[in-house]
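User: Hi! I'm working on a homework problem where we have to compare a predicted structure to a textbook description. Could you give me the structure for the chain below?
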Amino acid sequence: MKAVVRRVALEILGWVLVVAGIAALVLPGPGLLMIFAGLVILSQEYEWAERRLEPVKVRALRGAAESVENWKRITFSSVVAVGLIACGVVWIWSPDAPGWWPLSERWWLPGGPATGVTQVASGLIAIGLIVYSYRRFRVRGEPVPELPD
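Assistant: Happy to help. Predicted structure tokens:
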């Protein structure tokens, strides 16, 4: 019984990560990282997931390497990550709508503090990934993985 519960819990977690990763490809967040994590979990049960692990891993690592190719990209990514954290702090703080806000007050900072928490978490994850990518590909000089044929 314990093994069945563990299997179901891991399968649910894997699918949640895959779906959230797909959403994060267009929303703020580490989409490829979440898809990869979900596939790692699902690959324990499904062969199709295991076959898709390597291409997703290579694309994620290529993206990480390209994000730190030059200082312009590093600076831009870092500024965006810090800006995301700053916006999240404002969302958590939830100040009243300013006088210049042209829409209804209910459209000011939609989602409330929960949105702010996810923005701060996304910004911190982004900074962590920038540091990881910088150390791996710029400091250690690891080669950029090639896409399989």
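For your comparison, note the following. The chain has five helices and no strands. The chain has a mean pLDDT of 89. Good luck with the assignment!
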